[in-house]
Amino acid sequence: MTGLISDLSILRYTPAGIPAVEFKLMHESTQNEAGAERQVACEVCCIALGDPAVALSTRMDGCRLKVKGFLAARNMRYRSSLVLHVTDYGE
Amino acid sequence: MTGLISDLSILRYTPAGIPAVEFKLMHESTQNEAGAERQVACEVCCIALGDPAVALSTRMDGCRLKVKGFLAARNMRYRSSLVLHVTDYGE
Q: Which SUPFAM superfamilies did the record assign (chains A, B) (predicted)?
């Protein structure tokens, strides 16, 4: 998924000492659905842990980013509140 | 993404006459992040339009499903409320 970085947090460390950074990815694209093209936009809450977090923490809001990862619930109580865990990224 | 179907809606038609069905996908998996394996769970709101909708409307809650598609905001006001638009599916 691609988008522009927004609300980039400062680099923090989890209780286990793992670097972590959070940000939003402002995504816009054209997608094909039911035989028609449609404009798509969404704001995806992202978190990166470990090496990706250290690297991404140097970015600026407004930077374009392509990310790969997996969706997970923000917490076990609100399983439909989704966070994209970024495991790989590129320009 | 794979998961179990939940809250499958009845088949409806959009004002433009396109078949549509909504459901939740109860996802659980093991993912690798920052060099460690972790258990992941989330509930993804899904919508299918067109032929996929007609086919998926015959499924039952609790069925296992593998889906492909794109993330979009539920509406332009709440851009962080995400819906997975299913464009392809399998067992």
A: Nucleic acid-binding proteins (SSF50249)
